Structure formats: C-alpha cells, structure tokens
C-alpha cells in the first residue's frame, strides 16, 4: 500500500505535529507499507527533533526559509506550502490513501479534491479546528462574509474524509456536529519514559537550577499561546506565597502571551527559555507538578499535548480550564490532579491546601501514569491511526 502524508512540518523539525507524523510514518513502514511525506522546506526548530524515519520518502516543497511569525507571514507560508503540495500530488501516481493534518489550515481540501476527482480515500487528522480557531481568536466574527465560506470549506473536507480523527471527546462532538461523516477519537501520545538514568538527570538538573529538594516546582512547559490562560495559576501562587514548603511556579517556553504574562505576574512566576530535544525529558521530570491550561472558548478546538506528556512521567497536573474539555474530563475521571475552572475560588483553595502535601501529590501522580498507560501510549494510539489508514485503503478496493 502506498500512503501519502501531508503536513507542513516533519522531522528533523521539532514541531509537535511533525513529530507525531514521523511516528506514524515509521509505523506504516514497519507494517510494510510505502510512506511518502509532503512537507515544507521551511524550518521550525530544525535539527532539534528526531531524524527522518528510515524508509520514508520525504518530499520538501516551497522555499527553504524559517517558518515566519505574524498572521500575514504565516498566511503566505501556508499558501506557498498548499500550492507546492498540490503540484506534487498532481504529478505523482495516485496513492492508495492520503492523510492530511491541519497545518496549514484547510490542507484537507487537497484530500477532499482527490477523493472527489480520483477516488483516493483520505483521512483527516485534526490537531486543531478551522475556522473555529479563528473565531476563538476573535479574528472571525459571525457577521464576517468569510465566515460562511470558511465553514463550507470545513464541511467539505470533513464530509469527504473516510474518517476524521479527533484528539478528544470534546473535539469529536464539534466535528460530528459540523458535518464529519465518521469521527474517531484518538488522543495524541507521548514517547517520554521514566528510567533511573533520566531520574538522575532530572535530579542533577534541579541542583543546577537551584531548585531545592524541599521545594515544590510547578512547571508550565510549552507554548504560551492564545488558547491558554494563567489567571488561575496566579491566584494559586498568591495563596501559596510565603507558606512552607516553598512552591515555585516556573514557566518555560515562548508564545504570543509570554510577554503579557511576565508583565502581569513576574512577581509570582519565574520565566525561562523553552527546552527541546534530548534535554526535554529531564526538564519535565524535574518538576513536581505540571501546569496545563485552556481558554473556555477553545474547548473542542485544541487539546493541549502537555497533558499526555505529564501523565507519561507520572506527574500530577493542575489544569486551569473548563471541566467539560477533554483534559478536564480525563483529569476528573482519573483523579490525576486538580481542576481550576475559571473564577472558581473554592477549587483554587482546595488546590492550595493539597499541592504542598507530598502524600496527596504522589497518588495523583500514580493515577496520571495509569491514565497514560490506558489512553496515551504510542503503541496503542499511533497504531490506531495506522489501522484507520489500512481500513481506508479497503474503501478504494
């Protein structure tokens, strides 16, 4: 079987979507299939991610430059990649299956067109939803004449797909309501593992950073984007300030909100650069509690990948966000941490009481690890996406 995978990013770029696609391509090759990937020639953390999996044919399209920031520049990058991907698909032999992700937005329309014109089954793997994300950003209002146009495009790519992959139950509900014919819920996975060597590296990293053994490190690691919030973390830090043991709120990463968070809460939070590559596992393991957040308006539009990573390392999570989101549901179901709904002072008080207690953190961390084993392992979830591709190939025959 010949499978074509389309996404703007792919290893060695360190973009999370590219890393996941690299895992999937390697799994398809392991199963004896041909896997060709169409990705952008532009970089995104190039050289920091895993190498290109052996046996995968990689086709780079577009200009060789670093992926740019800013709406206008991103749109230009998206358009350049979409044109290059279409040219490549047009000149290639017809694949058995095409899988498209959602970077850039609406790239699944290429799959919808191939399905309609050439009978190629395609799978749409949603990392986030468009145009819903534009509305959550506040960039697309209901009265905007582009709103019905973009909604129609989204319906087309979702309706034409053999299956649409959602990352959580909240995303699956949105997709089903917006015209997707078949929705499969497959969360993202994490390849992080706990080992004695990694634990030793994490302890050494704590010492190097001046984090005391008697201090509790609450770590936010990753993008500080518009889909995230930190108000509840600030309220929790205020409640814990000056109380023993010392709780340190550390924010590692970058993003459009980092500067604003530093301005508002620099007295409560500590900020440090993003950590990627080989150092990331020890960096995440060095924390006692992980911080994950989501704006209510983004429920079902994104599912932060920070959560499976925390669970893989057996770390309890403080989640600032809506209880009805995927992470809110999983966290409550497993009792793997604390949920801080926006504006809920009582929940913040309960977390402030519990977080300093090692006897309460430890069982929640163990529950997080069990949740990982049940829902977020690479073998299970990457395998499910590969299974779906194999099922799609049978549609053509």
Briefly characterize the structure.
With 397 residues, the chain is an alpha/beta fold. 45% of the residues lie in helices and 15% in strands. The protein has helices at 16-30, 71-91, 108-118, 132-137, 146-160, 169-177, 196-209, 231-240, 258-265, 280-285, 306-312, 326-334, 345-354, 358-375, 378-396, and strands spanning 2-6, 34-40, 57-61, 97-100, 122-125, 163-166, 183-185, 216-221, 247-252, 269-272, 289-293, 317-320, 337-340.
Explain this structure to me?
With 397 residues, the protein is an alpha/beta fold. It is built from 15 helices and 13 strands. It has helices spanning 16-30, 71-91, 108-118, 132-137, 146-160, 169-177, 196-209, 231-240, 258-265, 280-285, 306-312, 326-334, 345-354, 358-375, 378-396, and strands at 2-6, 34-40, 57-61, 97-100, 122-125, 163-166, 183-185, 216-221, 247-252, 269-272, 289-293, 317-320, 337-340. Helix 1 links the parallel strand 1 and strand 2. Helix 1 (16-30) packs across helix 15 (378-396) and helix 8 packs across helix 13 (345-354). The longest helix is centred in the first third of the chain and has 21 residues, at 71-91. It is globular and about 65 Å long. The N and C termini lie close together (11 Å).
